[in-house]
Amino acid sequence: MRKMRFILMACLSAITLPLLAQTEWKLIWSEEFDTDGAYNPEVWEPERGFVRNHEDQWYQGENAYQQDGHLVIEARKEEGKPNPMYRPEGRRDWRSEREQIGYTSASLTTRRSFDFLYGRLEVRAKIPTASGSWPAIWLLGKGMPWPSCGEIDVMEYYRINGVPHILANAAWGNDRPNSAVWNSKKIPFSHFTDQDADWASKFHLWRMDWTPDAICIYLDDELLNDIPLTQTINGSIGQHINPFTRPQYLLLNLAIGGDNGGRIDDTAFPMKYEIDYVRVYQKEGK
Asked: What residues are annotated to the active site?
C-alpha cells in the first residue's frame, strides 16, 4: 500500500509542482506539422491494408496530410474500391473475404525512426467522436510478439455497449499467445462533455509521464490512469521481462468500426483526426 501511495503521489506531483520545477524537462523530439502538404516520410511510416481488430478501414498513407499547422488523418467512405487482398476461393480470413474496400484511413508510426525509454509525451489533438470512429495515440515495443512487447494507449476513443468512452490503458503478456493482461481505465465521454458541451469541437492535451516506477496518463492535466511498473511483468512467452523498461515507438491512427469502433455513421464522413503537435521530453541528466 505504501508503494501504491508513492506512485500516485509521483503522478499527481507533475500537476502540482511549480513552473520552476518543471524546467528540468528537456525537449528531445517533436513534430509540429507546420508545413502544408505531405507529412515527413523520414519520420512517419504508414501502415497499409487491413491490419488488426477486424477493422473496416483500409490503411493507406494517402489519407494523412499536413494542413494549417496540423497533421490530419482523414477517414473516407469509398465506393467501388477493390480489395487487393480479396480471395474469392480457398482459405480466407477477415482481410481477404471482402471484395471491396468500404472505408480508408491512415495509421502512422515511428517504428523505424524514433523510440524512447522514459520521459514525458505530449500530444495536442482534436478527435472525431461520431459513431464508428476509433482514434488512438499509442506506443508499442519491439523485439517480442504482441502483447509481450508492451502496449501503452495514451488515448483511445470508442463506444462500449453503445456509450462513448475515452480510455487510458497498458497491456503486457501472460503465458498464452496473443493474450494480454490489461490495466485499463474507461471514462464515459459524458464526464468531459458535462464539463464542456463543446468539448468535441476543441483541441485537448493528452500526456504520458513514464518513469521507472509508473506510467501516468493525463487528459488536460486530469489524471486518468496510473500504472505501477511493479505489476507489468510478462509471462513465460515474454520471458518474464517487464516490457516497459525498454523503448517504445509511437503510433497515431484513426480506425473505423471493427472490434471496438461500433456501428459506423456513414453520414459523418469524411472524419478528421487533427494533431497539433507531438512532443517528447526527458529529464536533464537522465
From this structure: 151, 156
